[in-house]
Automatic annotation (TrEMBL):
The keyword Ion transport does not apply. This is Glycoside hydrolase family 1 protein. Its EC number is 3.2.1.-. It comes from Streptococcus caprae. InterPro entries: GH (IPR017853), GH_1_N_CS (IPR033132), Glyco_hydro_1 (IPR001360), Glyco_hydro_1_AS (IPR018120).
């Protein structure tokens, strides 16, 4: 049966400043935590002694140049428009606006750059969907304040969001406060700028940092709605459904407890308070969250919608040591014998996306937005009739199967705002800092050793996605 997606469905693609802008030290930009993780942010969980974290930027860090979107944004946005994008998810680099993060006055050159990007998107009728903090904590805040482990970051973040909300109040409607906010539990340096070595980071310190981020997110939501009541502000979580490895009730309980660690973040963003299940976890682990005056009331500033990334599912067991650990999973988990895996060990589960959509919507009855989904693969550039291209049928197959399940969820009654594939153009991987882990519809001629011309070439999937958008998804059912 052919299904047609709603006419107002927001089709597009998703990126992050640190993975594709480049120009890491241009026009007054300060360093971010990404500039000192040349091997990627996972598993770079610890402090400066971690060999994955360097003292200063090193030439082998591909993120320093990215794919040079900073200088090529017009060319790239024109390609997105050619595909028919209705929305483009991007992030603002915090350290491009406040180089250290704790300044009072912003860097005008940084603000002006995003003005130009938003104006270019507007020229093509593409809505920007802007992430305020996408794994881009200013490095100074990590080194001098220990990132989100320090409550001072709330006021620095407040100054930053007030600045950009005010500057772009007439150019941006859709905002996300933090990218994959729950990932701070597993990658605290990359996600939260926490410089304490991972092995020295207590659960108390980690969950106190989580609390600071949640309060800051609620504060951003409050400020945004005051500055422009038409803003739509969402949270963004890493969705990873968990299946019990067997029908043993203890395995099912292990899956539930794993998922609760993620639901914690969306529960607080949507319901405005800590859920009871986490209170028991805190008691059992000797965690006492320190609330400042006003925190409880601040958390009641809840989001307008829930956005999430979805790449894989995992399995869980009461005795996980009896099974193989899933390769490449940022949040752990056990390999599911019923699923195939990508080249990087991420298990491919289209039905899991339908389950996530239904679970989130049944739980919250708020609009949802899939803001990351895609397949990282080693593409090979070949000669085609119209010039160099990539025959990426494997990517088309992955996306087609996932989008058919999105269509099923819509028919289930889920309210879904849109879908942005991760990396519509090749960019540097956050987890491994490779460029060979390609996601895009557009091939970028740059290699893991830093060589390449940065020329852009359309892959086979470019025209496939263009047709999906043009037919409101009907072409998925050919």
């Amino acid at each position: 049966m052919t299904y047609t997606f709603p006419k107002d469905f927001l089709w597009g693609g998703a990126t992050a400043a640190n993975q594709f802008e480049g120009a890491y030290n241009v026009d007054g930009k300060g360093l971010s935590v990404q500039d000192v993780t040349p091997r990627g942010g996972v598993p770079a969980k610890a402090g400066d002694h971690n060999p994955l974290i360097t003292d200063e930027p090193t030439p082998d860090n591909l993120k320093l140049e990215g794919i040079d979107f900073y200088n090529r944004y017009k060319e790239d946005i024109a390609l997105f428009a050619e595909m028919g994008f209705k929305v483009f998810r991007m992030s603002i680099a915090w350290s491009r606006i406040f180089p250290n993060g704790d300044e009072t006055e912003p860097n005008e050159a940084g603000l002006a750059f995003y003005d130009k990007v938003f104006d270019e998107l507007a020229k093509y009728g593409i809505e920007p969907l802007v992430t305020l903090s996408h794994y881009e904590t200013p490095l100074y805040l990590a080194r001098h304040y220990n990132g989100w482990a320090n409550r001072d970051l709330i006021r620095f973040y407040e100054n930053y969001v007030r600045t950009v909300f005010t500057r772009y109040k007439d150019k941006v409607k859709y905002w996300l406060t933090f990218n994959e906010v729950n990932s701070v539990l597993h990658a605290p340096f990359m996600s939260g700028g926490i410089a304490t070595p991972y092995e020295d980071l207590s659960k108390q310190d980690l969950y106190q940092a989580v609390h600071h981020e949640l309060v800051a997110s609620a504060l951003a939501t409050k400020i945004g709605h005051e500055i422009n009541p038409d803003f739509k502000i969402g949270c963004m979580v890493l969705a990873m459904p968990a299946y019990g490895m067997t029908s043993n009730p203890l395995d099912q309980l292990a899956a539930r407890e794993f998922e609760n660690q993620n639901y914690l973040f969306s529960d607080i963003h949507v319901r405005g308070k800590y859920p009871n299940y986490i209170k028991r976890y805190f008691r059992d682990n000797g965690i006492e969250i320190q609330f400042a005056d006003g925190d409880e009331e601040m958390l009641k500033n809840t989001v307008d919608f829930i956005s999430f990334s979805y790449y894989m599912s995992v399995a869980q067991a009461h005795n996980p040591e009896d099974y193989a650990v899933g390769k490449g999973n940022i949040m752990g988990g056990i390999s599911n014998p019923y699923l195939e895996s990508s080249e990087w060990g991420w298990q491919i589960d289209p039905v899991g996306l339908r389950l996530v959509l239904n679970d989130f919507y049944d739980r919250y009855q708020l609009p949802l937005f899939i803001v990351e989904n895609g397949l990282g693969a080693k593409d090979v550039l070949v000669d085609g009739p119209d010039g160099p291209t990539v025959e990426d049928d494997y990517r088309i197959d992955y996306l087609q199967k996932h989008l058919v399940q999105v269509g099923e969820a819509l028919q289930d009654g889920v309210e879904l705002m849109g879908y942005t594939t991760w990396g519509p153009i090749d960019l540097v991987s956050a987890s491994t800092a490779e460029l060979s882990k390609r996601y895009g519809f557009i091939y970028v001629d740059r290699n893991d050793d830093g060589t390449g011309t940065l020329a852009r070439y359309k892959k086979k999937s470019f025209n496939w996605y263009k047709e999906v958008i043009a037919t409101d998804g009907a072409s998925l059912y050919k």
